[in-house]
Write a structure and sequence with these properties.
The chain has helices spanning 3-6, 53-59, 82-85, 101-105, 201-216, 233-247, 250-270; strands at residues 7-13, 16-21, 32-35, 42-44, 74-76, 93-97, 143-145, 150-152, 157-162, 171-175, 180-184, 222-225, 231-232. The protein is an alpha/beta fold and 276 residues long.
Length: 276
């Protein structure tokens, strides 16, 4: 299967594109966001990497034909989990938070929580392909990101907000001028997952308090999340506030502990050679 067949995209205007992997039919299917700037373009999260995302972007002409544009496309992972980082190795420039550099550089499929089944792939990307052979390929990040870093696209700036909890290196990218928040898996319109390896509930609560603060200070109008559909500031406030109120309850703590134990056992069994 070609890259053109594997992916699909939709233009959201103002140089923003939403890309998805058509045949990865799972709740784990991540949104891929492509944002064009006057001097630098970025792709935010890269999916599984089963087909070449750069080839698709080029074939569809999503970056235009500006002869003066010299900077290679920068791929940024909102965090290292496999559904967001699997395609990073396809890019010359790769950015991730410093806390997860080693996981990507070492191809640590435990920390990237690599978990893929044949039933999630509606059509095999190549003859004989099987999910059990899938691994996140090691990649050495060229851009090691920290809280407060600004990614200058020319006519746009994205500020890195370190928001751990879902993973230790989870980030949001905030376009302050346009009040857009690329939130990765820090928050999306669904159940927030805090029971994976390197998840931490106390960090997640703090990150959600920051999200509430962004809404209260009117710094976010629209959220472009790692999964499902975009949503607005009121929904962001409700999702973050709900997590804060529920995370400290006894039932939530018991559930998180149980799911965390199961997740670690399953990931160690499927990725026995990864660091634990």
């Amino acid at each position: 299967m070609s890259a053109i067949d594997w992916y699909a995209h939709k233009s959201l205007g103002d140089g923003l594109f939403w890309i998805q992997e058509r045949f990865y039919q799972s709740e784990n299917r991540a949104n891929i966001w492509l944002l064009r700037g006057s001097h630098q373009d970025v792709v935010i999260d890269t999916g599984l990497g089963l087909r070449s995302l750069p080839d698709y972007i080029d074939a569809k002409g999503l970056l235009g034909k500006d002869p003066e544009r010299k900077n290679p496309l920068l791929a940024i992972a909102t965090h290292a989990h496999f559904d967001h980082s699997g395609g990073l190795h396809q890019f010359q420039q790769v950015g991730v938070h410093s806390a997860e550099v080693d996981a990507l550089a070492n191809g640590d499929n435990f920390e990237t929580v690599t978990w893929l089944s044949d039933r999630e792939i509606a059509e095999a990307p190549s003859p004989g392909w099987r999910a059990r052979h899938y691994k996140v390929k090691a990649v050495q990040p060229t851009h090691i990101l920290q809280e407060g870093d600004v990614i200058n696209l020319g006519d746009r700036q994205l500020t890195v907000l370190h928001m751990p909890g879902h993973s230790r290196g989870s980030i949001c990218l905030h376009d302050r001028d346009n009040k857009l928040l690329f939130s990765g898996d820090v928050v999306y319109d669904g159940a927030m997952i805090d029971w994976l390896p390197y998840s931490r509930v106390s960090d997640y609560i703090s990150s959600c308090e920051r999200l509430v603060g962004l809404v209260d200070s009117e710094q976010v109008d629209q959220v472009l999340p790692g999964h499902y559909n975009a949503f607005g500031a009121k929904r962001l406030h409700r999702l973050a506030s709900t997590y804060i109120s529920r995370a400290g309850t006894c039932s939530a703590k018991v559930s998180t502990l149980a799911w965390s134990s199961l997740a670690r056992l399953a990931l160690r069994a499927s990725n026995p050679r990864s660091a634990c």
